[in-house]
Write a structure and sequence with these properties.
The structure holds two protein chains of two kinds.
Chain A (H helix, E strand, L loop, with lengths): L3 H10 L9 H8 L11 H27 L3 H16 L2 H20 L14
Chain B lengths: L1 H12 L10 H9 L4 H22 L2 H17 L10 H23 L1 H8 L4 H7 L3 H10 L3 H13 L3 H8 L3 H28 L1
Helix pairs in contact in B: 2-3, 3-4, 3-5, 3-9, 4-5, 5-6, 5-10, 8-11, 9-10, 9-11, 10-11
Classes of the chains: A mainly alpha, B mainly alpha.
Amino acid sequence: MHEYDDIDRALFALPLEAPPQGLREAILRSTVHAPRRVAATAPAFLWESIGVGVSLALAVWLTIALVANPGFAAQALSALIAFGRVLTDPATLTWLAVGASATLWLSIVTLRPVHARTRSGRT
Amino acid sequence: MAALAGLRALVNLGLGPEIAVDDDPSLVAATLAGRNEAFGTLVERYDRAVYNLCLRTLRDVEEAKDATQEAFFKAFRGLRTFRPGAKFSTWIFSIAYHACCDRLARRKRYSDSEMNDRADPSPGPALLTERRDEAETLRTAIDGLPEKYRAVITMYHLQGHQYEEIARVLELPMGTVKTHLFRAKELLRRQLTSHAAGEVTD
């Protein structure tokens, strides 16, 4: 076995080694036969339910308030206007900006654990 | 190529009655559609080749076993990211090779001395003479190659002359693959020649 062609021939004739016993079963157990994780879908469903429930309750409350008190619409409108005025107040805006910048700063300086570099096996 | 064809023939004989012999893209599509047993066919088709890639790269049966299992697990979990039109064999080899690289890097990080002991055990004429069997001699010679050449020669063994696939799996330029392959063959030739000379002397 001295030439490259001989090495090629020997390589291609080289039988693949048999995997250890139980390897295939172990792979199938961790993939094909692994129990499905149904719990992962529960939180999404739960939050959707909560969202729909809250919206429905608000709609019912608004309807009852409008029917029971004819002046409710005007009161609600004036409350909204007052709230808008407060929001455009320079002092409120200053405090909101302080809060936002503090949040941003904390999110930047928070120490994170150092993870080892992993390589993705995607092509 | 002959080894692959033989492997395919062997695998096809062992297929269950429920799943028709099919090509890889159909099996991937079937798995994505919820027919998990189709992935089982892919496992049957490639577990041996993937295990051999891991074994040659890591040179440790237990680690090769774990890396093979990890590769299939990752492939199953990430099957939705598999690019349509790509070759499943290239993809699974690539995942397996990266799993091996991670393990080699971990080995190196935790035990440099151990890594040196295990990385390139020079077979030596005595050990080569002990392994009379030609296949074993060749395997021993491959195991004695440096890691970068060993990976290329193993992929060449598994994929044949498909240099593009080899380059894709190892993430190397085509020219580098060819250079590594040439040097690997040269090293193998030298080792096997000296082994043959040793036998004649004996």
